[in-house]
Amino acid sequence: MSKNDDRLHAFDAIRASALILGIVLHGALSFAAGVDDRLWPVHDGSQSAAASTAFFLIHIFRMPLFFFVAGFSSRILWRSRGEAEFWRNRARRIAIPLVGGWVICSFALVVIVAYALARRNGGILPAALPPEIRDAGFSFLHLWFLYVLLWLYVGVSLAKRVDAWARGDRQGTSRLSDPVRWALRSSAGALLLAVPICLLLVSQEDWRWWMGVPTPAYTLIPPAVPLCIYGYCFTLGWIVEGDRALLAALASTWRCNFLIGGLCAIACLGLAGTHMTFEVITAGFTKSLYAFAYGIALVAWMLCAAGVGLKFFSRESATVRYVADASYWMYIAHLPIVIMLQAYVMDLQFPWLLKLIFVIAATVALLLLSYQYWVRTTWIGVALSGRRRRDGEI
């Protein structure tokens, strides 16, 4: 990367990985031991604790990683183009895909969930829908993260105004982020950086063992705990972009962060079990222990994933750039395809792992083909990525 080049190619790989892992995560759900209609409409005849464990482990860090990358990219965009252009860009690349993707996926899911229920009921629709599906209210579906991003962008605008008012004519940079920078340079800094997330998780009422950071998909005003957690991850990315020397620190500490996160993730599994459950964690020492282990695993693995990308994918790659461009479309469009394929294979007498591989491979192949021939050079591709992406776009 040249000195004047704001684009870090590693972040293409990191962002694409976070989005594509979402396809893997949802693909594994129908095979997860203990899954029911509260979470997913398809329950495969072949299920495994390995699938539920994979879901649990990916869920720990995937969305925090995305918000970390979003914070990094947003600061580039704000600095290079200013507030007005920042909001025009975010309207095109975040708000419009949110609305359009939600409308199309909602209609598609009505048909596909009906197909899945018929497959579960011997080929005909049941006389009554399962209560968890019948009583399900409004949801942003898998696109909730775009809605949360819009809230965080409003927070950035407000924070910028408050900071400008507080500074007045004074020059210089704020020292409030110095402890964060110090922790990011430290091999064990994740232990300190995780403290705010741990405290937020402890404060979460009706926190369920297996749900990790609660998904803020069901209300127009995001719940405080997940909004603050994802906002914190976003802020960490924003701080890292302001001090590019931190990137080298992340690349050099990824092994330590992997080990710290792995030990804490194992502790979480020891407490929660490998069988998916919707049981609420009762207040007390166990909840605090679980919250601190989960928070540390979240931060450590988020930083580890970023460090791996910076360590091994920093060189420009046409393939990585193409997959990164395609991954946004793939994530937006994947959910109906995944559920349809899961419903198709649910009663086939094959091992769950073979069926999972088929679901993921077929989904990715269909989405890549659709991107190449029907999206990339169309108005949809322009809306998602622009005719030629510029620095700061995620």
Question: Characteristics of this structure?
Answer:
70% helix, mainly alpha, 394 residues
Estimate the helix proportion, in percent: over 70%
E-strand count: 0
So how many helices? 14
Distance between the termini: 18 Å
Number of domains: 1
Let me know the average pLDDT.
Answer: 90
Alpha-beta content class: mainly alpha
Task: Assess the beta-strand content as a share of residues.
Answer: under 5%
Q: State the order of secondary-structure elements, H for helix, E for strand.
A: HHHHHHHHHHHHHH
Radius of gyration: 21 Å
Low-pLDDT regions: 1-5, 388-394
Q: Major beta sheet, specifics?
A: none
Brief summary:
This protein has 394 residues and is mainly alpha-helical. It has helices at 9-29, 49-120, 131-134, 144-167, 178-185, 189-193, 195-203, 224-242, 245-252, 254-272, 285-312, 318-345, 352-375, 379-385.
Task: Write up this protein.
70% of the residues lie in helices and 0% in strands. With 394 residues, it is mainly α. The protein has 14 helices and no strands. The chain is globular. Helix 2 crosses helix 12. The protein has one domain.
Question: What secondary-structure arrangement, pairings included, does this model have?
Answer:
Layout: H1 9-29, H2 49-120, H3 131-134, H4 144-167, H5 178-185, H6 189-193, H7 195-203, H8 224-242, H9 245-252, H10 254-272, H11 285-312, H12 318-345, H13 352-375, H14 379-385
